[in-house]
């Protein structure tokens, strides 16, 4: 990364160049919603891991191929963006399906959603032991397992679900499959950061921009803010600080994954509002702000552009992007099919801007 200034708080007009980043955890939905949000990521990133929790979920390679084609049709003809497809793990996923997925050249990972953990996760795993033949094949073929790290036991406090997942689920998976690549996605706690740091090199983690920039006060103080509701939920400030330390440490186990999750405004602003924040419109700008706040811009490129590619065994992107220290006001909403999606910081300021 080249930086025009070494100051921790860079002056307006300063520019930085980064190797083009990748998003290792992205929701783009389907249909008109997909067409509305896909260009934001394609403008910034070279690749993105595409989440499979559609309705119905992407549980087979054939469905992944169909979804891939829909995404490609939503891109500009000249776009070089590459969607990296995933399968949705169920109790019935077979080793044969895993082999088929790898042979396709389109599927780069398999996603574990504990049943009921988040949006469209009702078909998720209820008994991990039933998935062991698939996990064994994934370990053999080097296909990563992506985990939504929360237990769904109603007796467990929502703020403790990630920690309990480590103790009740993840430790056992790693013990039984020590050479299975596992990405602990959108980690939100000190417990998760410490666990990943202390685990083998087969274990990595994504961290979202919103969990680097916000804590649970941002969701609850002054009234509940539905557009700040996501799963896993925002945590205490001590946990946010632990995530900042992990992301800016230079440790290659941690890398960019936005978990950008668009929902129509009406589905967020209800008594049972959907979980997820829409950040893809300014993903790299938000990460840059978080790293600048931590006086760690020198580690931004590794986190956003290098560590994830290395973990997945893929080449680093060959081109660069440019960001300028320039304040701009986020629109109140963006078009989203027949509705609108409210972005993070709607009507507020972002302090960096991607230069075309």
Mean pLDDT, as a whole number?
A: 94
Helix content: 25-40%
Q: Strand count, sense and closure of the main sheet?
A: 8 strands, parallel
Query: Strand order of the main beta sheet, please?
Result: 3-4-5-6-7-8-9-10
The SSE string, one letter per element, is EEEHEHEHEHEHEHEHHHEHHHEEEE
DSSP helix count?
Answer: 12
The proportion of strand residues reads 15-25%
Description:
The two termini are 18 Å apart. Strand 8 (182-185), helix 6 (190-198) and strand 9 form a beta-alpha-beta unit. The chain has helices at 31-44, 61-74, 95-104, 132-141, 161-176, 190-198, 209-213, 217-220, 237-247, 265-268, 283-293, 300-312, and strands spanning 2-3, 15-19, 23-26, 47-50, 82-88, 107-112, 145-148, 182-185, 203-207, 254-256, 320-329, 334-336, 339-341, 349-355. Residues 3-7 have low confidence and may be disordered. An 8-stranded parallel β-sheet has the order 3-4-5-6-7-8-9-10. It has a 4-stranded antiparallel β-sheet with strand order 1-2-11-14, with helices on one face. The chain is of the alpha/beta class.
């Amino acid at each position: 990364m080249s930086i025009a200034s070494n100051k921790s708080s860079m002056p307006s007009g300063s520019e930085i160049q980064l190797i083009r980043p990748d998003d290792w955890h992205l929701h783009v939905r389907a249909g008109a919603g997909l067409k509305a949000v896909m260009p934001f990521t394609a403008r910034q990133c070279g690749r993105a891991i595409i989440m499979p929790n559609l309705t119905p979920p992407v549980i087979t390679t054939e469905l992944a191929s169909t979804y891939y084609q829909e995404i490609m049709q939503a891109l500009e003809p000249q776009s070089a963006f590459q969607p990296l497809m995933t399968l949705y793990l169920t109790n019935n996923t077979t080793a044969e399906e895993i082999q088929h997925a790898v042979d396709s050249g389109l599927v780069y990972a398999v996603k574990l959603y504990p049943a009921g953990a988040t949006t469209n996760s009702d078909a998720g795993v209820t008994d991990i032991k039933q998935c062991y033949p698939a996990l064994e094949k994934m370990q053999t073929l080097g296909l990563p397992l992506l985990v939504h790290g929360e237990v769904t036991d109603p007796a467990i406090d929502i703020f403790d679900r990630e920690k309990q997942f480590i103790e009740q689920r993840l430790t056992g998976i790693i013990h039984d499959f020590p050479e299975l690549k596992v990405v602990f996605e959108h980690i939100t706690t000190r417990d998760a950061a410490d666990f990943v740091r202390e685990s083998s090199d087969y274990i990595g983690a994504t961290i979202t921009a919103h969990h680097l920039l916000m804590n649970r006060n941002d969701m609850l103080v002054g009234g509940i803010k539905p557009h700040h509701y996501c799963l896993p939920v925002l945590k205490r400030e001590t946990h946010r600080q632990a995530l900042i330390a992990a992301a800016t440490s230079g440790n290659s186990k941690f890398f960019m994954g936005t978990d950008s999750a668009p929902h129509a405004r009406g589905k967020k602003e209800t008594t049972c509002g959907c979980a997820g924040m829409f950040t893809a419109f300014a993903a790299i700008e938000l990460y840059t702000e978080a790293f600048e706040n931590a006086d760690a811009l020198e580690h931004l490129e590794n986190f956003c552009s290098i560590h994830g590619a290395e973990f997945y065994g893929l080449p680093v992107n060959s081109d660069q992007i440019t960001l300028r220290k320039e304040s701009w006001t986020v629109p109140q909403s963006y078009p989203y099919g027949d509705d609108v999606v409210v972005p993070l910081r709607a009507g507020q300021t972002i302090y960096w801007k991607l230069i075309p």
